[in-house]
Design brief:
The chain has about 325 residues and is an alpha/beta fold. The chain contains 15 helices and seven strands. About 25% of the residues are buried.
């Protein structure tokens, strides 16, 4: 292996054909280069009189950050990569030392498609290599992630958004993607709530014939976002509630009315009343648990007291609420 000290100015740093890494200047690498020097050479491709990077994008950028003018490099020609494309060489080099992050997997697969490799081969050989199921739809999902806007990419890398949510949002226009990424940086949504919020936004757009995401400009959502008393997690829950109310106004009113009438009965919290989910019938299920006979009698007495309350009749009123 021939390793030469190569001037950084002679390397085409703009050519990112083989780039797999997402972040190019990780602080730990910069510290390592400053304290220990470069332990592994970068790999360069000499093609048409130009030197392009195959492996070592982060090492090169860290070297420049430290103000160094040359870098130890292994320089290869195109024949050295046969039968692999230089990008395949770079991908396998990365996989030999670490597990790729979600955005890096998406980047690598998108670049493999761009090389002209048959998609069937990418699905068969490279998806399993990246711990993904060998299916065309899995490849398509990765290509969507790679097209996500910078805001969504930032949210995925930071764990703010789940991969499934980024896939769904990447189908929207870049302005809508950025808008949603800014929203979720202010609220905290679990993966489950992300799915529900995105579903509600889609249903509202279909129902009202309005642009996707239009309710995010409404006063209900603004009130949640501007409430200083709420934590990010609470804002996420209230955001979901606000969108649910917009999507199911009659059902929400029916639930609110039932809970108000239930509270008026003054039953202890250990007694739970459950109406029909969509208030299509007047049925109410009563549940409670008692550790002993004395507690059972006490709770039964509370139910008997509620049974004599005039407000009980109102609890069974059904006004044709539907989802």
């Amino acid at each position: 292996m021939n390793i030469a000290d190569t001037p950084v100015r002679d390397i085409d740093l703009e050519n990112e054909e083989c780039r797999v890494s997402e972040g190019l200047e990780p602080p730990p690498l910069i510290r390592s280069l400053r304290e220990l020097g470069q332990l592994n050479p970068v790999v360069l491709l000499e093609r048409g009189g130009r030197l392009t990077i195959v492996c070592g994008f982060r090492r090169l950028h860290a070297t420049r950050r430290l103000g160094r003018e040359s870098v130890p490099a292994r320089i290869l020609g195109e024949a050295d990569f046969s039968p692999l494309h230089p990008l395949e060489f770079a991908l396998r080099d990365n996989l030999a030392t670490r597990r790729l992050e979600p955005l890096e997997r998406a980047r690598a697969l998108c670049k493999l498609v761009e090389t002209g490799l048959p998609r069937e081969r990418i699905v068969r050989d490279y998806l399993p290599l990246l711990d993904l199921p060998p299916r065309e739809e899995a490849l398509q999902s990765q290509l969507l992630i790679d097209r996500a806007c910078p805001g969504l990419r930032r949210c995925l890398a930071g764990g703010v958004l789940a991969q499934q949510s980024v896939e769904a949002l990447a189908k929207r226009t870049p302005p809508l993607q950025e808008r949603f990424s800014l929203l979720v940086e202010r609220v905290r949504l679990s993966a489950s709530l992300q799915r529900q919020v995105l579903g509600l936004l889609g249903e509202l757009a279909a129902r009202d014939g309005a642009p996707w995401g239009a309710p995010l400009d409404g006063k209900e959502v603004a009130a949640v976002l501007e409430d200083p008393s709420l934590s990010p997690s609470q804002k996420g829950e209230r955001l979901h509630e606000a969108l649910y109310r917009l999507r199911h106004p009659r059902l929400t009113r029916a639930r609110d009315r039932f809970r108000r009438r239930e509270r008026a009965l003054g039953l202890p919290g250990s007694i739970r009343l459950a109406p029909h989910p969509y208030f299509e019938t007047a049925d109410i299920r009563v549940e409670f648990s008692a550790p002993d006979a004395a507690r059972f009698r006490e709770l039964a007495g509370e139910l008997e007291r509620a049974a004599r309350s005039p407000g009980l009749e109102e609890l069974f009123e059904v006004e044709g609420e539907t989802p």
